[in-house]
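Please decode residue identities from the backbone states below.
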């Protein structure tokens, strides 16, 4: 099999996965404690060394595009652009909600995924399809920013909710089975391979993160620089 690399660094917990030439998968998880400094490229190098894979052997790259942490998203997307351009390989942009849904194989569809909760809003995505075939609901470009009223309307019909501790209190009492999301790099790898097979690669020049709101770092910079 052709080696494929997947990088999930949009959240505090994620990692890197590599499809090996023998068909196996190698994974290196990265957590909030192991991501101090630039841990991404050393993790990629470590997996490639273990698998006997050189960068020139890669046939595709997948990256989680958020919503997520400002720094993690920028690092992951910058690394993906650099590798795609320098190696001439396709890159697949994967909304993080899809990674979370594919990482949880138990719930039946449709699933609601709430990310990037702040104040009285969150980024909400509806995911359909059985495990191994999870897709964003038709008409969704990665999800939508909703308030409490929009949240209740959007989750109607969902079987469960994947949400972290940042879900606004105004969205409590929804009545759905709530599960903490995981962001497995091997799930991102599977989605990436499906995207490659479906010719869903994006131009690296247009690869961009999903930011539900203006990043705080950008707001502070603009305020300081006038």
């Amino acid at each position: 099999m052709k080696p494929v690399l997947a990088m999930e660094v949009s959240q505090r917990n994620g990692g890197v996965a590599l499809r090996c030439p023998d068909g196996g998968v190698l994974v290196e998880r990265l957590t909030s404690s192991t991501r101090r400094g630039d841990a991404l490229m050393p993790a990629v190098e470590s997996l490639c060394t273990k698998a006997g894979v050189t960068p020139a052997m890669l046939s595709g790259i997948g990256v989680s595009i958020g919503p997520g942490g400002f720094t993690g998203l920028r690092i992951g997307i910058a690394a993906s652009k650099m590798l795609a351009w320098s190696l001439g390989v396709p890159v697949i942009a994967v909304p993080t909600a899809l990674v979370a849904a594919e990482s949880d194989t138990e719930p039946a569809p449709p699933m609601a995924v709430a990310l990037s909760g702040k104040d009285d809003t969150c980024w909400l995505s509806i995911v359909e399809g059985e495990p191994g075939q999870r897709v964003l609901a038709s008409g969704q470009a990665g999800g939508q920013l909703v308030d409490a009223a929009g949240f209740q309307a959007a989750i109607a019909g969902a079987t469960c909710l994947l949400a972290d501790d940042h879900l606004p209190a105004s969205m409590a009492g929804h009545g759905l089975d709530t599960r903490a999301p995981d962001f497995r790099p091997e799930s991102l790898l599977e989605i990436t391979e499906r995207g490659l097979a479906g010719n869903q690669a994006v131009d690296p020049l247009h690869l961009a993160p999903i930011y539900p709101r203006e990043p705080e770092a950008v707001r502070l910079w603009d305020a300081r620089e006038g």
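Observation: The chain has two domains: 4-96+183-225, 105-179.
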